[in-house]
Structures are given as C-alpha cells and as structure tokens.
C-alpha cells in the first residue's frame, strides 16, 4: 500500500519506528521485535538506514519482515555515505521485495571526507528525483520544524524543502520536537511556501536521562523548561523517568490530534513496550489499524 493513501485522508494514523541490527546474527531477535511491534497494529512501520552509526545492511530485510505482518513498511534510504550505484542496487532490492514506500534522506555527511564525490548525491532532492525515475515508489522526506542544523535560517531550509517536494516527495516526516507550538508555527510557514503535502509529526518518547543529552547534542533540539523539570526531578530514577517520558509523549500526541494534526510517527527505537503503553493511553482517542 502506498502511504499517501492513508496520509491524504482525515483518518488519524500512528506509526512506529525500528532500526535494523548491526550483525546478521541478531536478525532473528529483531524479527521478534517486529512481531511485537506489529501486534500493536500501527498504521505503518518505518525502518531506519544507517542512522547514528548503525548499519544499513538489513533495512530492506527488516522492512520485508514488517510487510509479512500485513503492515505497510516505510524503508529509509540515505545517500551521503553511498555511491549512486549502491543506492540503485538498494532500489532494485526494494522492488524485488515489493516494498513501495521509501523515506529518502541525504544522511549525515561523513566527517573528514570529500563530499560529494562525482558518483554521489548532494541533497535528498537529487536522490528523490532519481528514485522517482527508477520506479513507481511512494517517496517521503524529512523536515525540521526548528530548521535543519546546517541551514542558516528556517526560511532557507524551507526553500530547499520545497525543492524536495517539487522533486517528487509526496509526504514529510518531522524531526522530533518537544513543544507542539514549534510544529504549529512550522506548518504555517511551510504552507505559506506552497508545501502542501501531508506532514507526519515525529514524537520521541524520552524514557531515560542519557537519551535527552544525546538528542540535544545530535539535533540541537530546543527542550522546553517543562520537560527539563521532568528530567531534573526524575532523571536519576529510571522507572519514574520512563513513566514521565511516556506521559509527556502521550500528552504531546493528544494535543496534536486535538489540533487537527492527524498523522503521528512515534520514534519507538525498537521498544514495543514503550509504544504499547503510549497506544494504551490513547485507546479511546486512536482506533488501531
Ligand atoms: P536534505 O534534505 O538534503 O537537507 C540537508 C541540508 O541541506 C539542509 O540544511 C537543507 O536546507 C540543505 N539543502 C538541501 N538542498 C539544498 C540545496 N539545493 N542547496 C543548498 N542546501 C541545500 N539519518 C540516517 O542516517 N538514517 C535514517 O534512517 C534517518 N532517518 C531520518 C528520519 C527522519 C524523519 C529525519 C527527520 C531524519 C532522519 N535521518 C536519518 C537524519 C538525516 O539523514 C539528517 O538529518 C541529514 O543531516 C539530512 O538529511 P535530509 O534528507 O533532511 O537532507
């Protein structure tokens, strides 16, 4: 199923995220995680590609495993660390496995490397145009409600986002944010720039103290005082921090849905228990697929 069939309706959707194993020996265990996550009946499940130093070798295989559970898979595909030939071979693999949804990303530029080399893509928009030329995929891209860290201004970033949409990106998933007003402001600005594809709001349940430090250092996200107070008060009590993080994410999602943001992606980080608790908290608000 093409995800835009879901995302262009008014129906509320909640999706989850998985990352693939670093070694093939871990694959069986990861397939169990897919099964546990699939039992929660998310609208779709996305599988990352080489994110934060992880591997990309098993993304297609794990995405294919997701579809065995009759849940649409969204396979991420990044290009900054790959040649165009490597990207083309992954596209062929996706076709073979009949996976029709791709989240096309540039990825982070490898440190101390000449970039781009002649056989590399410079921006996600170039990758998107090429995927479109190579097959009938439903292509999504990333967007950044606080602006991408490399962009000088949010408006410059939005201009490039528009190029991405014009290149064939049919929907967007946001970087995580911890204050919903940041997303609402972003949506107005994006619309005023003519970016009118569905935007899926990315929510990260922060369930331990180390996670928030990593997030801020990687993405430069703004963390509101209300959330910092939670980390200060409960950060050294793992069970309390987990419960408060789940409650905070639930609260964000309820506010989004109440304000008409119908599509939410939970950065579940291979934790079906966390995803399950959030969905249980929403049982009267969100009817599972
Ligand atoms: P782009 O859209 O290419 O943008 C990157 C920067 O370049 C921006 O500052 C943009 O304004 C600028 N830019 C774009 N076009 C131009 C142009 N024509 N001229 C000048 N500047 C331009 N990383 C992974 O490694 N694996 C994953 O699975 C993964 N999944 C992600 C999922 C989501 C929802 C998000 C939000 C991010 C994800 N990332 C992942 C991280 C992502 O790869 C990085 O944030 C990366 O730095 C940017 O990727 P992009 O696709 O947004 O790049």
TrEMBL record:
Its cofactor is FAD. One of its GO terms (biological process) is methionine biosynthetic process. CDD domains: MTHFR (cd00537). Its EC number is 1.5.1.54. It catalyses: (6S)-5-methyl-5,6,7,8-tetrahydrofolate + NAD(+) = (6R)-5,10-methylene-5,6,7,8-tetrahydrofolate + NADH + H(+). It is an enzyme of class 1 (oxidoreductase). This is Methylenetetrahydrofolate reductase.
